Amino acid sequence: MHATRRTRKLRRARKIVYAPAMDLCLADKTVLVTGASGGIGRAMARAFAAEGANLVLHGHGRFAELEAWTFAQPWAERALCVRADVSAPDEQREMFDAARARFGRVDVAIANAGVWPPAERGLHELDEARLRATLETNLLGATWTAREFLRALAADGPRKDGHGASLCFTGSTAGRFGERGHVDYAISKAGLYGLVRTLKNEIVHLDPYGRVNMIEPGWTVTEMARKDLDQPGTIERVVQTMPLRQIARADEIARAAVVFASPYASRHVSGQVLTVAGGMEGRVLWQPGDVDRAEVLRRLEEQG
After folding, report:
1. pLDDT tens, 247-299?
2. Which domains are assigned to the chain?
3. 102-141 burial, b if ≥16 CB within 10 A, otherwise e?
4. Would you tell me how many other CB atoms lie within 10 Å of the CB of residue 169?
5. Are the CB atoms for 164 and 208 separated by under 8 Å?
6. Nearest to 138 by CA among 190, 90, 93
7. Cα separation, 42 vs 22, whole angstroms
């Protein structure tokens, strides 16, 4: 009986010691997120904060809102908010200088800032100003973010613990399949493929374990996008090309960013594009009658 009780105690102890857990090795890292005032950017901030990372949160047009939101978070003391125009290279350099002055180095950069002009325009109708503005923000802005991250890495050198630097872009399924009426946006996101496939080969000359990847969201519900779900036919149209008849939430995109950033979970992952779009294809899979609108909305509200 004594031996049996002791065995049971040991088993219980083992269950406690070996409880399932995953340390993503981000607790001592500094993560810079551009476009942190938007729905996906804020979700990324929350996700990285939950891992214990230091945060450099970039905003521009909604910077005051970002600052107020950050100040109200329990992890505010680990966060620095920086205002910059991502299309201005000098302002990006100042942003990285401020991050390094505060935290010493930047270990992870998420080039997430972007714009999506809502008005549908065919290329023959598209004015030069809008085309240039979208490319300046989405494509060149991401390029300047990457350049300043790599410059900082060249100056600071790789980490001594062998945890490689991580650069991650936020792309879009528009860059893979195109998007009628939004050719400017599609071009800007398609160009990120060239950055990923080139920079994965460049970063290793600055950090032998540095990695470059991209997340490619499809239609994702954010605070600002929720109102569109009330428009008749929107949900049916959005999910008709997805095997998974549901819509992504910003937190699901953020989790993908955390995994790519982790030197534990993605130690040997570089040059990859992770599409987070419910299996989206460039063809219709479901007819309107096949889509249960109420079920799609219910799953958006589920926890986890």
Report:
1. 888 999 999 999 999 999 999 999 999 999 888 887 788 887 888 888 888 88
2. 27-219+250-278 (3.40.50.720)
3. ebebbbbbbbbbbbeeeeeeeeeebeeeebeebbbbbbbb
4. 26
5. yes
6. 190
7. 23
User: What type of residue sits at position 104?
Assistant: G
Q: What is the CA radius of gyration of the chain?
A: 21
Which residue in 54, 65, 57 sits closest to 34, CA to CA?
A: 57
Q: Is 174 left (phi over 0), alpha (psi -120 to 50) or beta?
A: alpha
Residue (of 114, 88, 99) closest to 169 by Cα position: 114
Decide if pLDDT at 85 tops 70: yes
- Pairwise CA distance, residues 137 & 140, whole Å: 6
Structure tokens at 95: 């942003």
Residue 3 structure tokens: 């031996």
Residues 6+ apart with CB under 8 A from 218: 172, 173, 242, 248, 275, 276, 277, 278, 280
CA atoms within 13 A on the CB side of 49: 21
Residue 235 in contact with residue 286, Cβ under 8 Å?
A: no
Mind listing the pLDDT tens digit for each residue in 2-23? Answer: 445 554 554 444 444 434 468 9
For the chain, the residue count is: 304
pLDDT in tens, 169-181: 999 999 999 999 9
Question: Which residues are 214's β-sheet partners?
Answer: 169, 273
CA distances from 197 to 114, 168, 203, 257 (A): 20, 12, 11, 18
Task: Please give the sequence-ordered ranges of beta strands (E in DSSP) within 43-83, or none if there are none.
Answer: 54-59, 79-83
Task: Kindly state the percentage of the chain with pLDDT values over 90.
Answer: 70
